[in-house]
Amino acid sequence: xxxxxxxxLARLLEARRHRCIVVTGPAGSGKTTVLAAWRRELxxxxxxxxxxxxxxxxxxLPRFLDCLVASxxxxxxxxxxxxxxxxxxGQGSDAAERLAISLVHGIAAHPRELVLVLDDAHHxxxxxxxxxxxxxxxxxxxxxxxxxxSRSELPLSLGRLRSQGQTLEIGWRDxxxxxxxxxQLLKAQLGELDARxxxxxxxxxxxxxxxxxxxxxxxxxxxxxxxxxxxxxxxQAFARYFEHEVLDRLSPVELEALVCVxxxxxxxxSLGAALMGQPxxxxxxxxxxxxxxxxxxxxVPVESxxxxxxxxxxxxxxxxxxxxxxxxxxxxxxEIHNRAWLWFRDRDQLDEAVRHAVQAGEAAMAADxxxxxxxxxxxxxERRTLIxxxxxxxxxxxxxxxxxxxxxxxxxxxxxxxxxxxxxLDRMEQRLAPTDVLQRFHLAMLRATLCVQRDDSDGALKxxxxxxxxxxxxxxxxxxxxxxxxxxxxxxxGEYEKARRVQLDAPPxxxxxxxxxxxxxxxxxxxxxxxxxxxxxxxMTHAERIYRAVVAEAExxxxxxxxxxxLAIALLGDVLYERNDAQQARALLEDKVDVLERITxxxxxxxxxxxxSAAHWQAGHRLESFTYLERLEDYATRFGLDRLLAYSxxxxxxxxxxxxxxxxxxxxxxRLDEVDARHPQVQQNSLDEIRELAERARxxxxxxxxxxxxxxxxxxxxxxxxEARGRQRVAAHMLALSAAVDARRGRQDAARQxxxxxxxRGHKLGLLRxxxxxxxxxxxxxxxxxxxxxxDPVLAFYVQRLESTHARVPMPGTDAPQAPDRxxxxxxxxxxxEREIEVLRLLAQAMPNKKIARALGLSPETVKWYLSRLxxxxxxxxxxEAVARVRDMGWGS
Length: 893
What we know:
Elements (H helix, E strand, L loop, with lengths): L5 H9 L5 E5 L6 H12 L5 E6 L7 H13 L7 H7 L4 H17 L5 E6 L7 H13 L4 E7 L8 H5 L3 E4 L1 H4 L3 H12 L4 H11 L3 H13 L13 H11 L6 H10 L5 E2 H7 L6 H13 L4 E4 L7 E4 L1 H12 L3 H17 L3 H10 L3 H17 L3 H10 L2 H5 L2 H13 L3 H13 L6 H17 L3 H6 L1 H5 L7 H17 L3 H9 L5 E2 L2 E2 L7 H15 L2 H18 L4 H17 L3 H8 L3 H7 L2 H17 L3 H18 L2 H17 L3 H16 L10 H17 L3 H17 L3 H17 L3 H18 L3 H4 L5 H11 L4 H11 L30 H11 L4 H8 L3 H15 L4 H10 L5
Parallel strand pairs: 1-4, 1-5, 2-3, 3-4
Antiparallel strand pairs: 6-8, 7-8, 9-10
Helix pairs in contact: 1-2, 3-4, 4-5, 4-33, 5-6, 9-10, 9-11, 10-11, 12-16, 13-14, 14-15, 17-18, 18-19, 18-20, 19-20, 20-22, 22-23, 22-24, 23-24, 24-27, 27-28, 27-29, 28-29, 29-30, 29-31, 30-31, 31-32, 31-34, 32-34, 34-35, 34-36, 35-36, 36-37, 36-38, 37-38, 38-39, 39-40, 40-41, 41-43, 43-44, ...
């Protein structure tokens, strides 16, 4: 506050657009002060600054990610909308990487440049956190600049950024005060000093600002003492000197107050008074803290939305005080922690309350608190907070309480840790007594929910006897979840009306007298499933109305309704594509795929990937189309979802047939047959769709081979099966395909009759793409039918809609539309799709294929596919030339 470090600030300002700024130096060397001054200079230049001050308790991956997202959200909540959702799902490197990518996406869309300062980053010793920081550096867009402030060197790989001139590294030599800066500081603190005294103090501290500040304080107190103190050049010397020359001079009450607040990472006057056991002496605490701040005694105010001023201790002072705290009588330590936990509890600061309760030896009371607040937190959508609280509790406390075990299992479901959830449920069941009816209901509900995530309708069906008989005392969340599972089960049994009746006949679900709309057990989720039941049948008009209403209400509900919002937009996207609004479907979903994959049910993920693949295919983007099918395949393989895998393989095969790639299509069909063979006895459940998909694939192969009679016979059976299950949308699609096959067989009358029936069904259901995507010959049949038949006005209008629906579906054996021919002298950005531009930008950063694949959610093989195509467009021979060419275009990092 008294020395302007002009040279350091100039270097920092010059490097403000570098990817990474690293400031390393011992505690008390002025790192934070310099960065704070830099922040003041950056803001008038149009930069946004997010600042995260870290502590030892932040060295846990979930907590660190929470704090990181929260700090960026203070700049603009829109920056972390996707990251906040992704971060809550999963643990470990995969989850951290997904969050880093989501955060990067949000920042890339921000209109201004953003500096992210991570202060006291030396606390982050967890390898998983360091890996997350590395991803953030590797994937950062040009407008993100990361400043790392640490006492020690961080184990991060900065070699590539150094070679690109994208780093500024400031060390202890740079942070030490020059003699002139020492003179400026001492003059402000002590007034005029002779040159000899200034030089002596500078030499004693070696320019270490904490030592200079402490010696200045000491000299103020002993102005006539000519004796020179010992050298103060490191933390150990600081601690010894602080003990003898500062702490020993405080009154016993003042010293005790500082020792009592040391276990808290931050504190205020009322908390300090409570920890001293004097809650009525807040005024004295306010005056004491204000005096410490005024005298620069290493007590620093921190930003807080609270009206009361909050402080933190300088790290060196806190370490010194914690040493004294640990030397206290253990009973006295527990007493202070006990006061802290009660203070934080009364102010709903749950994480600090639970942390101190455990340290106070009150783990049981901490568990009681978590148990009481779990349901309200869950209903409000604060699942990340609930997960964090559960992790703070000792394992034995969680395992002794069924409800805490249940919330742990729910958290594992939310984070898609499905195997861990299954293990938790098995352990819970082993401890249940036969008479625990209520607990068995909760267990059955969780097992059925796990089955939904595993796309296992047979497994969920086994829980049905328990689900149908809900005992007294079941909370609204469990009841609503049960209802939604029943609807899901009925849908996959082909009982669509029953699926709807479960929701429509259910009594209102109330939590503390308020209707339950949020969470996976809320009424909004139930209405989504009603819409899905209509979509299963093919009644897209009904489905669309429900989805749109749910989306609007979920948006109003905020984060409590996040799951429902994403489920609703995923399902709405399916309707939009069916209505031939592929562009709107892509705009709605394409930037949300990462989140959708994490927090929605497999049925929704299936629809998202298939419709995005179909939308890109319709636009002539073959690679993007296959990319989404590959991603669906990866998702299905990762979670063992054979039905979703079958859909991916079936669609891939049809695409290859349309491109005339017969051998590749046959290889994909062989893989589909292997999946089908794994489920030989299934009937009337979700997995029987696999057999239907395999049969549809065989129809496609027969058509490609010209074996129209074989295809026609198979189609008759397929249409009958779809009608028997009430899947009218698929039946209409198959009927249109059958009409096209009959036309190729020369059976024009049969073709016209089937096409006419397909049109009637399509109009009734509100279908467009299902008919047009059935076969490239469908459009011709519709046109001929309109010319030869006298249609009623309503059907005639429907035919006009189909006629006006432009399609870009390649015929078998032909190629998809290619980019227009352009001059080789110039690379035009219009030559590239959005996905290709993303690949190029990461390529320009010399990022390896595997990291490009991770950043974009592709498989490494798909990245290779993109690169071979891009090399041709750029007219280069290989990777190095491509990197140079892209950087010349200004697309580098």
